[in-house]
């Protein structure tokens, strides 16, 4: 069965420093990949997604993620974080051609330190 | 509706009682998911519907949990004989096939 691994449950980082949140998924021929964000006391919302085409996808608030098929990874990065980026981030994968359901990782809590 | 709607938003129940949680997905969305989010436990998959059928019930934690979906739309998650460990936020999401999932605000269940 498809699975998603987010190795880091928590990541502390200083404000204006770069950050990378790691995500790996179990191998499959074709997948869609997503990052969701949950701000404190809010619901989950889509941050960015990879469906096809360019392997580098970006969000409107400066995050980017790169689909790496050979490493089955979809790490999320931001060159300079802001206090408002404090949130929990979830990686998700949809396995095309199987049952198509979306599987989520356990999440990574990003702590921005002043 | 405009988004995924869940009701109630909060539910406090006594241990041993049954509860029903409701999810109204976005109109036309064929896929519907239930997840559970507990403090420190991340996002736990419970069940997935494609139309009215549930090809994957593997995440239901025990036989006290059941879910159904009718008319390819509304879904209810039922927990019988609630236990304190059932306390969590129950999230519903819907999607158009393999597209992105849209989440509701969740139902916060507290078992006392």
Describe this structure as you would to a colleague.
The complex is a heterodimer of chains A (114) and B (112). With 114 residues, chain A is mainly beta. Helices cover 0% and strands 52% of the residues of chain A. Chain A has strands spanning 4-5, 10-14, 19-21, 24-25, 31-38, 44-50, 56-58, 64-68, 73-78, 87-95, 102-104, 108-113. In chain A, the strands form three sheets. In chain A, strands 2, 5, 6, 10, 11 and 12 form a six-stranded mixed sheet that branches. In chain A, strand 8 and strand 9 (73-78) form a beta hairpin. Chain A is globular, with a radius of gyration of 14 Å. The mean pLDDT of chain A is 90. With 112 residues, chain B is mainly beta. Chain B has no helices and eleven strands. Chain B has strands spanning 5-7, 10-13, 19-24, 31-38, 42-50, 53-56, 65-69, 75-79, 88-95, 102-103, 107-111. Chain B is globular. Chain A binds chain B through residues 9, 32, 34, 36, 43-46, 49, 90, 92, 94, 96, 99-107, and chain B through 31, 33, 35, 41-43, 45, 48, 50, 55-56, 91, 93, 95, 97-106.
Chain-wise SSE layout:
The complex is a heterodimer of chains A (114) and B (112).
Chain A: E1 4-5, E2 10-14, E3 19-21, E4 24-25, E5 31-38, E6 44-50, E7 56-58, E8 64-68, E9 73-78, E10 87-95, E11 102-104, E12 108-113
Parallel strand pairs in A: 2-12
Antiparallel strand pairs in A: 1-4, 3-9, 5-6, 5-10, 7-8, 8-9, 10-11, 10-12
Chain B: E1 5-7, E2 10-13, E3 19-24, E4 31-38, E5 42-50, E6 53-56, E7 65-69, E8 75-79, E9 88-95, E10 102-103, E11 107-111
Parallel strand pairs in B: 2-11
Antiparallel strand pairs in B: 1-3, 3-8, 4-5, 4-9, 5-6, 7-8, 9-10, 9-11
């Amino acid at each position: 069965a498809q699975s998603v691994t987010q190795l880091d449950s928590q990541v502390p980082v200083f404000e204006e420093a770069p950050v990378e949140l790691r995500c790996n998924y179990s191998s499959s021929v074709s997948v869609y990949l997503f990052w969701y964000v949950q701000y404190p006391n809010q619901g989950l919302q889509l941050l960015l997604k990879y469906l096809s085409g360019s392997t580098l996808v970006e969000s409107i608030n400066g995050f980017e993620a790169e689909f790496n098929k050979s490493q089955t990874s979809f790490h999320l990065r931001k060159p300079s974080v802001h206090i408002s980026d404090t949130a929990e981030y979830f990686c998700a994968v949809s396995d095309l051609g199987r049952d198509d359901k979306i599987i989520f990782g356990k999440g990574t809590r990003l702590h921005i330190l002043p | 509706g405009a988004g995924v709607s869940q009701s109630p938003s909060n539910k406090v129940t006594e241990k041993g009682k049954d509860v029903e949680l409701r999810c109204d997905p976005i109109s036309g969305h064929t896929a519907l998911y239930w997840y559970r989010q507990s403090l420190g436990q991340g996002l736990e998959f419970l069940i997935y519907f494609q139309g009215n059928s549930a090809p994957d019930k593997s995440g239901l934690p025990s036989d006290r949990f059941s879910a159904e979906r009718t008319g390819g739309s509304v879904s209810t998650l039922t927990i019988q004989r609630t236990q304190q460990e059932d306390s969590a936020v129950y999230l519903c999401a819907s999607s158009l096939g393999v597209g992105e999932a849209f989440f509701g605000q969740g139902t916060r269940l507290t078992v006392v």
